[in-house]
Batch of 3 targets.
Target 1
Amino acid sequence: MEGSKIKIGKYGEGLASDFLIRQGARIIEKNYYTRYGEIDLIAFMGDEILFVEVKTRTGSGYGYPEQAINYFKVKHLYKAIDKYLDRKHLNNFWRLDGISVEVDRVQKTAKIRWFKDVGRNF
C-alpha cells in the first residue's frame, strides 16, 4: 500500500510539472529535500520563484487533495524555502503554491487545480 501511495504521488507530481510547463513555468528543481521537509517542485515563472506543494488523491475518502496543505505543512515548507533561498543565494520574489491532482483510475483522467499563494491563508 505504501509503495502504491508513493507511485501515485510521483505520478501526480509529474502531471503537475507538465501542467506548470504548459502555463509558462520553467521547472528548476524536483523533490528538493531539507531537514524541514521536501519541496515538491521549484520553478521560475518570469522572475518569480514558485515553490509548489503537490497533493494527489485517487478517491475522496481523505477529502480533497488541497485540504492536506494545512498550517503545519505550510510552516515546514516556509522553513524549507528559507533554506533553499539561503543555499542558492537567491533574493527573487517568490510564493508558495499548491497543486491538487485528482486521478480517476477508471476513466484514466486527472483533474488538476492550481492554488496560488497558499501560505497567505495561514
Target 2
Amino acid sequence: MIDFNVPPYVGNELKYVEEAVVKNRKLCGDGPFTKKCSEWLEEKTGTQKALLITSCTHATELAALLTDIKEGDEVIMPSYTFVSTADAFVLRGAKVVFVDIRPDTMNIDESKIEEAITERTRAIVPVHYAGVSCEMDKIMELARKYHLYVIEDAAQGVLSTYKGQALGTIGDFGCYSFHETKNYSMGEGGALLIRDPQYVERAEIIREKGTNRAKFFRGQIDKYTWVDAGSSYLPGDMNAAYLYGQLEAAQQIFDDRMRSWKLYDKLLRPLADQGKIELPVVPEGCTHNAHMYYIKAKDLKERTALIQFLKENGIQAVFHYIPLHSAPAGKQFGRFHGEDVYTTKESERLARLPMYYGLKEEQVQYIADKIAEFYQ
C-alpha cells in the first residue's frame, strides 16, 4: 500500500529529543529548542515575532483573543477549510460568514468578500489552500478600507510566498501547523506569527497562562505574576526538538517534495490536456511548498470510483473538507453569504494523491499509471 501520508523523519530528530531530555533536562515549554525553532521561523519569514504553539488551532484561537473577537462580531472566511479555522472564532461567540471559493486555487474568492462585510465584521481569514496563496493584495486593501484584521490560516503554507513575502507575514497574524500531516512536523504543534510589535507582549502573556513569565525569564522583572486572562499554549521542548531536526533540513524536505509534485504534474498533464482531469493551478506571483498534489475528477460519482479504484490497486488517495456551511455546526454558528457556485461542486471533485518526504519516483509513476488506466 502506498500511504497517503508518512510523517517526515530526516535523521537528527531523536538525537535532539535525547539532548532535550538528557543534556538540557528541559521538557516543558520555552526551552532551548523552542527558542531555536522560533528564531528559525523569524529568520526565514521575516516576521516580527514567531511563537511556537501547541497547534495551528490554538494559534488561531490566540489570534482571536489578541484581536478581541467577541459575541456578536462577524468573521469572513471560506467554507472550504478545516473546522479549526471557524472554531477559534465560534468559541469567542462570533458569527462565521462563509463566502464562495475560486475554482482554480480553491482559495477564498477575493471578489466576493466586500459584499459580505457588515458593520459587525471584525476580521477576514484567508486560508492558503495547498500552500498556494490567496490574492492578498486585494484582501489587504479591503482590510485597510474597512479597518478589519487579517488572520492568515497558513497551516499548509510554511515556506510558500506571495509576491516575495512569506505566507503568514502579510496579514496581522499568521497561523502555521506542524501536525504530522504537514511538510514539517512535531506531531501536534503550530506557530503564531505576529506582524505588529504592539501585540507581542500580550501574546506572550496569554500564551503563558496570563502571566508575565516571559519577561521574568528575560530578566526584565524580578518576579512574575498573573496579569491577564490566558491559557497554556506552550508545546513541550521535546516536541520542539523533534521539529528543529526537520527545520534544519527544511530545504532537503522542500526539494524532495517538489520533485514529487513536479513529476505528478508532468505525468498527469496528458490526461488534463485531454480534458479528463484538472490539475492544481499556481497563480503568477505565488510560490508554493509542494504541500499536496490533487486532481479534480468530473464529479462526485467519478471521484468516488477513482478513489476506490486506486485503493484496490494499493494506493491511498483521500478527499477532505465537507464544506463547513453544510455541516450541522456550520448552520448553527455561521451563514453563507451569496451563492455557493463553486464551494460544494469543486469540493466534491477533488482527490488528494499520496505526497510526503521520501515518496519514491517509481511510486509516483505507478500512481500516475493507475490514474491513466482508470480513465482508459
Target 3
Amino acid sequence: MIGGEAQARASQGGGAAPRVRRLILQDFRTYPALDLAVSRPLVALSGENGVGKTNLLEGLSLFAPGRGLRRAELAEMARHGGSGGFAVSAAVEGPYGEHRLGTGIEPPHIDERSARLCRVDGAPAGSPAAFSEYLRLVWLTPELDGLFRGTPGERRRFLDRLVLAIHPEHGARVAALERALRSRNRVLETDPADSRWLEAIEREVAELGIAVALARHEAVERLAALIVATRDDASPFPFAMVALTGELDDLVAAHPAVDAEDRYRAMLRDGRPRDRAAGRTLVGPQASDLAVRHGPKDVPAALASTGEQKALLVGLVLAQASLVAAMSGLAPLVLLDEVAAHLDPGRRRGLFERLATLRSQVWMTGADPALFAELAGAANLLHVAPGRIERLST
C-alpha cells in the first residue's frame, strides 16, 4: 500500500487539476460501446495483451492536438465491422465545473474521407486545440523506449508533444512550416532561378521556423530549470540534462527574434545551391535535435543501460507533466502505457509514490493486476476484458 500521506495527496482535487470522470466510446477500436465512470486521480487498467487497454488511452489522447498516442489515421480507429465512424467523449471536471468534450468521425460516404468532428458541451469546435482550455495531456508508451538511441526526428516529435501541451497552436505552426519547406524544395528543384518566388517562400519559412525554434527553446530551457530545481538524488528516477542542438537553435539562443529571423533568411538564401544539391533544406527546426544526458553519470542517455534509460525516460515525462502544469495552469492528464511491468519493484514503488504527489489524473496499463496491488484504496483498479471492463476496486 502507498503511505497514508501520499494516499491523501493522491485523492486531492480542486484547483487547476482537471479529472476525467466519465469516458464513452462508440465503435472505437475494439469497443462497440463503452461507458466508463471513474472517481480517483489514479486509474489502473490491467488485462491480457490485445484486450484493449491501450485503446482506452488512445481514446483519451485524442483530446490533445494531433493524431493521438499511436499517431494513427482516423479511419484506422473505427471498429472493424462497425459503421466506419467512431465517437469518443469525456466528462471532464475542472475548476469551473464539468464540461463534455467529444471527437470522432462520421461514417464515410463512398470515395470520400470523413473529416474529424470536435465538440465542447455539444457545440462544434474548430479543432482539437479547443480542448486545451479544459484538458492537457502527456504520455509515455513502449514505443518511446528507444527514444535516446533513435533518430533526431523521434526526439523532435517527443519535444513537440511537450510544446503542444503548453502551446496548442504549435502544431499548426509546425505543419505550416513543413508545407513551406516542401514548397521551397520543389522550387529549388524545378525553377531555382526564380529568386522572387524563393524570397517569398523563404520569408515564410524564416518567420515560421523562428517561431517553432523559439517555442522549443523556451520549453527546453524551462524544463532544464525545473529539473534542476526539483532534483532529488535519492529518487529511483535519475535526473536528465536536456539541451537543443542545431544551427537554428544556436541562433535563437544568441539573438533577439527579429534579428534571428533576418539571419535565418540570409542563411536560406545563401544555402540555395547546397540545398538544391541535397534535395532538401539543411538548416532549420527540421534539423534540430534534443540532446539528453544521464545526469548523475554525466553521459549521453544513449550510452546508459536499458534499465537506466527507462528510468531516465520516466523521470523526464514526470518532469514534463510538472512543467505543463506550471506553464499552462492545468495539471495534465498523464497516460502511462505498460510502464510498471518494465520497472523493478523498487522503481515501481517509487513511481507510485511520485504519481501520488502529482496533481494530475494518471491512467496506467499493465498486463498483471499484481503490478498495481499496492495502489488498492488509492486508485480505481479495473480489469479489461474484450469489449468490457470489470472493477477490481473503486
